[in-house]
Design brief:
By secondary structure, the protein is an alpha+beta fold. The protein has 3 domains: about 1-135, Nucleotide-binding domain of ferredoxin-NADP reductase (FNR) module (Rossmann fold), CATH 3.40.50.80; about 145-190, no CATH class; about 200-290. The protein has 8 helices and 12 strands. The chain has a 6-stranded antiparallel beta sheet, covered by helices on one side. A two-stranded parallel sheet has the order 1-2. The protein has a two-stranded parallel sheet with strand order 3-4. Helix 2 (about 45-55) packs parallel to helix 4 (about 75-90) and helix 3 crosses helix 4 (about 75-90). Its cofactor is FMN; heme b. Belongs to the NOS family. One of its GO terms (molecular function) is nitric-oxide synthase activity. InterPro entries: FNR_nucleotide-bd, NOS, OxRdtase_FAD/NAD-bd, WSC_carb-bd.
Amino acid sequence: MDLYFGCRESNKDNIYKEELDVCKTAGVLTDVNVALSREPGVKKTYVQELLVKNEERVYKQIMSKGHVYVCGDAFMASDVESTLEDILQRKGNMSASDAKDKLAELKAANFFHEDIFGANLKAKQEQAKNILSKMGKDVRTVNVLVETPHSWMDANNNCRDRFGGTLISREAVPNLNIDLSATESFWTLEYGTLSQWNDIIGCFDESSLNTGEDSLIFKDNVVGRCSTHCFRNHSFFGVKAGNHCSCFKSIPDSATQKEATNCNNSCEVKGRSTKYLCGGLSDFTVFQKGILVDCGLL
């Protein structure tokens, strides 16, 4: 039995490493393949890439009536299924339709098992529902009220990590099947705050920065959200086109600074006319945690 597991960093969310090592030593698992997408100093790797790397073995296991188990969100599951179809085409000289039919045959014969859930990001939830529907999966929404006090960030992360969902929108509150009469206050998806002052350091070439430390993508207001996210543990952050955010503990002396015109991508702040420069296609606008200065009149 081979296991393919994907997570961000080996020291943060590869939470079953010890148990998997024991299973492999005991012979329960033949091989354990871990894809790390945010490991510092290591190129991003996804489960699909490891499947392709081992496609000869994967193909033989599928054709030998081996069982396939896929667990994760709808996007990952869809990508894995497409990757398996590609492997069947290459190694089995199948057409695209024949490869798709082969996986459908495995599902019908109960050799292809799936435990799939929706997306964490609200912007992708509708797309995830479409993917799940095409896979013949039941799509449902469950409302959960957690009474433990949280900051907005903690509440949002709690919804994501414990329930695979998001905070509800303000407009959806009246439609909840939950009695909120005894609740003094609660968080919704809409949230506004003032970030601290940020100093712009300049425009830097992406390849000269360590963007693998902590990187993610925000739907909107990338400068403000990136600032809030990064400044808990880092002194610098950078943004680039596509709402990409990366946190940095420091900026290397060898980092390549470029002309400001290379970082001319503009990004908007939701609900405001303000626009910021948010890097370029392959360049980051880098900010440093600002120093609070008291101002007054003499």
